[in-house]
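quick one
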Amino acid sequence: MINKQNMTDADYLKASLCAPVYDVACITPLDKMDKLSHRLGNQILVKREDRQPVHSFKIRGAQAMIASLTAQERKNGVVAASAGNHAQGVALSATKLGISSLIVMPLTTPDIKVEAVQNFGGEVLLYGANFDEAKTKAMELAKQQGRIFIPPFDHPLIIAGQASIAMEILQQNAGIDRIFVPVGGGGLAAGLAVVIKQIIPSIKVIGVEAKDSACLTAALAAGQPVDLNRVGLFAEGVAVKRIGDETFRLCQQYLDDVILVDSDEICAAVKDLFDDVRAVAEPSGALALAGLKKYVTQHHIRDEKLVHILSGANLNFHNLRYISERCEIGEKREALFAVTIPEQKGSFLKFCQLLGGRTVTEFSYRYHDNHKATIFVGVRISNPESEKQDILQELTASGYQVVDLSDDEMAKLHIRYMIGGKPRQPLSEQVYSFEFPESPGALLKFLQTLGTEWNISLFHYRSHGTDYGRVLAGFELADYDPKFIQHLAALGYNYHDETKNPSLNFFL
Ligand SMILES: Cc1ncc(COP(=O)(O)O)c(C=O)c1O
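structure w/ pyridoxal-5'-phosphate:
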């Protein structure tokens, strides 16, 4: 089998051209996005990897590696650890080649994902509390049972398989100026870049990362792959803690630029894809488009031909509720403010009148005291550059105290749903946000795990229909309690200290 040390660029080109991906994968269309092209003043093309049999590009790499196995290795079967698109790619490729596949998935994996893998002929082993534990188990089983471990990104054959997408794009439309590619562990970006730069080096290849899982950006800053302390899970396909060694080597050498986008920008890109080509992308699948839009604006790009890769469409249907809620903000078509107004008759009306004919998208307030009330207000805007500033100025000039919360993640995720509740007497509290895998009873389990040793002073949870539940919780605590911090670390959930968030002081 090919090993990582000795692959030259030419080897990658050859491996990519010879990868037998089309036994299972298909050549996907490169569609025009007419509406967005018009809006952005560039020709925008989308590579439709949602049209693969597993609805993501991951089948390319999996097939390239599995098809390269010797007769003996095929007999022993393959094993992988994944709760996402890689799992489905491995299961389908192995089944098509008559090879047994075992996929280790964390115990918390939703049924829908387990069933998808089983439907593609994979055997599923549910093991471990998280991905790392599932991966350790998969490696162990590889040793015990002689199965070949199929990694998700950091292997030359996986990289070469993903690179088959580059050849297709060039054959479909070679006069391209830039290609935008999503980056998780970097397999797709590395493969695409190493091939494009050998054939038409003038095409710029730009990696797009989710702000809260930017492992390539962190590695570029450090000069080598490093672990991220915290990984956001919204764009699940790219929620990777550490970029691969080989993928980093190639990305560092061949990507022309990297851009970061946030969850709201991703949600807006999901909507653009739906509006233009009626595709329903998963968040990671729309990442590249979100990056393209931002890059075009930041660099004032016009009249270019720009390609982006819609890398996957495996989303939980209910995820769309959250996406639709957030895409207005991602498009910067909604501004959110905290406004303090006098607590007196008619002041609400006066405030609304001041907003004029603008559409108010959200409005929450709660009695505070006899003198003032604080309102959480959302306003639809059409010009993100100037209109928000106009509103801020108008309100301030009329004597209101206003804070712009449009970019405040915690305010958008939690505070907007839990306005009110200032304690009647001073409270010493520490506030944390948590993420935990969603499954029936998960919230109860989360609460049980938190225990009862500390008094909970605030708690907000809202099901977004996604795979991860998000909670904001306050605890009655003195400033710093090392025992409590230890307890939090031992829970095994992603958590973050929010105590100093300004929206907390406003409303709670
Ligand atoms: C839909 C989707 N997009 C992008 C990626 C990122 O790919 P890579 O890990 O090769 O960077 C993945 C990875 O699983 C994915 O599933």
